[in-house]
Amino acid sequence: MKDSFRDVLGVSRMITRRLFNGFLVAGLAPPITMPARSQTGAGVEEAIAPLDQLYSIQIQRGNEVLLAQAPRGPGLDRVANIKSCSKSIVALILGTCIARNEIPSVDARLVDVAPDLVPQDATDGVSEITMEHLVSLTAGLEATSGGNYGGWIASANWVSDVLTRPIVAEPGSRMIYSTGSTHVLGAALTQASGETLLDLARDRLGRPMGFEIPPWSRDPQGFYLGGNEMALTPRAMLAIALMMRDGGRYDGDQIVPTDWIEASVVPRARSPYSGMDYEYGWFITETGYILARGFGGQVIAAHPDADLAVAITSDPTRPANSEGYFGDLVSLLDGPVLDLARQG
């Protein structure tokens, strides 16, 4: 069992604390292209030209937007399905619930936080699953993603379906990518706080940071889907990236506790697909990005050392594998985007 986030603060101080004078997200607008300092963004523009899945990209260093373009798709001010970037948002909400003592710690067991969620026929071992196991995708239960996803969402009770699946790995031992784990976490946050996941996202992230979050899919019991289908504007995605870059602060306000952000970049598992380290809802790249990743190529990325925040949206109907389009996006972040950050 790993230590709670309060015990790992000395392990990683990767997040710096900067203030950002942000902007409120605008209302709906037609698709747009907004170059900023295009003369210095030539390398990025050249790199994205052949990426026909890419809808939008924004790059900010410090308080300066270096590039903001939406060559395809609905633009920067209309909501996009952020797919599994939702998992990273749910992870942030968990941090706020712990800070408010709605959940005692990341080590709290699901059966103690939300006993009503655990069915009588739950798989042996479910009683030992903690909030940390769920948020780090190390619960050990059979995955509900990939080929199992359709059957899972067709079930009568999504939470019970997850918790009655076989345990295929010891909890905490390895990452099993499963939207069901994050969905159970989101339902537990609802039970512990008394607020829906939508209200939690709006009250603790959206309103304090000045952006809207529309309702999204719910399960048959009324729990909002944790880990998929949330929608944000690309500008809101950039605001989240800035908040991650700046240690949980946005426009001078502490949105998510700094200690939770710091704990969120301590490696706890490794993706069997990309090889990236995975922490509390966020990937960490070898070059220092804190990364949320969604199907199709949705990306929220922060690079504290380079003072960078990046948001990318892509066609949500087309896959983005680590060896394919997502790999192209990682190469874009590691190459032209970091090069752009070093200019000036």
Automatic annotation (TrEMBL):
One of its GO terms (molecular function) is hydrolase activity. InterPro entries: Beta-lactam-related, Beta-lactam/transpept-like, Diverse_Enzym_Activities. Keywords: Hydrolase. Residues 68-315 form the Beta-lactamase-related domain. The keyword Phosphoprotein does not apply. This is Serine hydrolase. The keyword Hydrolase applies.
